[in-house]
Amino acid sequence: MKNRLLFFLCLVVCIGCKNSTKRNDGKLNIVTTTTMITDLVKNIGRDSVSLQGLMGSGVDPHLYKASEGDVSKLTGADVVFYSGLHLEGKLVDVFEKMGRYSNTIALAEVLDKGSLIGSEYFASNFDPHIWFNIEYWKQITNYLTEELGKMDPDNASFYEDNKEQYLKKLDALEEEVRQTIATLPEEKRVLVTAHDAFNYFGKEYGFEVVGLQGLSTATEAGVQDVQNLAQLIIDKQVKAIFVESSVPKRTIEALQQAVKSQGYDVQIGGTLYSDALGSSGTEEGTYIGMFRYNVNTIVEALK
Ligand code: ZN
């Protein structure tokens, strides 16, 4: 009898937990994946949400696997916001299973598929590096704010205000980026990086973009890839190529060597933030700071 009573009590408590959308402190318990998504939720939710980001600075989302600690964070969350379009390739199964009985939201799903860059490599059939188009980031900001407001109506107008402020900052960023890029002659807009994270960026700002490892870091670059790319660098007289913070730099160094062995000197123009932001607490640890830093680094090195 005692056992049955205990079981009943547990069940009531558990059902109670499932039905509540907020924690005891009144804050939505949010889990995010990439540092870009974490930064966005920080800007909109501020101190009215409780936020845990799974991936840190320098972490590659294509290869990231959930640890045991992550699984308990995920199952304890009121909502999980992730990027989607199979960016988080090794987490997709976990999210899809969770999605059947809990709240997981792939933010990139809000974008019009007709406008996205297609890719055979990803199971989504689209290039998932959508944060390099500021317009898309604004759409995702709107979608996130809407979803937060639905889950937490008491703070909906607070989220809305934060969104308005953030969209203004994104407008200013867009303007600044266009002005900076305008100083780089069009024929010098060739962006060679470790993997193909910058296709949306290239499309928007008129860069030819070539990633040594293709769209995902899960595929290694072959000898032929290195040779072909070395030839392109020489043909186009590209001044600099770029390391990425979330990809080991040996691939780009190998490319630099291949170019040098043919008598042409190409510089390493710096480290770009592609699939992860910089360290938390720094300028580059925010989406806006990361974007500005990348553009300044690219333009400075290619001039
Ligand atoms: Zn990537």
Written description of the protein model:
There is one protein chain. By secondary structure, this protein is an alpha/beta fold. The protein has two domains: 2-175, Nitrogenase molybdenum iron protein domain (Rossmann fold), CATH 3.40.50; 185-302, Rossmann fold. The chain is built from ten helices and eight strands. It has helices at 2-19, 35-45, 68-76, 92-99, 134-151, 156-182, 199-205, 223-235, 250-260, 287-302; strands at 28-32, 49-53, 79-82, 104-106, 190-193, 208-211, 240-244, 267-272. A four-stranded parallel sheet has the order 2-1-3-4, sandwiched between helices. Strands 5-6 form a two-stranded parallel ribbon. Strands 7-8 form a two-stranded parallel sheet. β3 (79-82), α4 and β4 (104-106) form a beta-alpha-beta unit. α5 (134-151) packs antiparallel against α6 and α6 packs parallel to α10 (287-302).
What is the CATH level 1 assignment of the largest domain? Alpha Beta
Q: What summary fits the major beta sheet?
A: 4 strands, parallel
**Given the helix and strand composition, which structural class is it?**
alpha/beta
Bound molecules: zinc ion
CATH architecture descriptor of the largest domain: 3-Layer(aba) Sandwich
The average pLDDT value, as a whole number, equals 90
Any idea what the radius of gyration is? Answer: 22 Å
What overall form do the CA principal axes indicate?
A: globular
Strand residue percentage: 5-15%
Helix percent band: 40-55%
- CATH superfamily descriptor of the largest domain: Nitrogenase molybdenum iron protein domain
Strand order of the largest sheet: 2-1-3-4
Write down the secondary-structure element order: HEHEHEHEHHEHEHEHEH
Return the domain count. Answer: 2
Termini separation comes to 80 Å
- CATH fold-level topology of the largest domain: Rossmann fold
Uncertain segments are 1-20
Total beta-strand segments = 8
Count, helices: 10
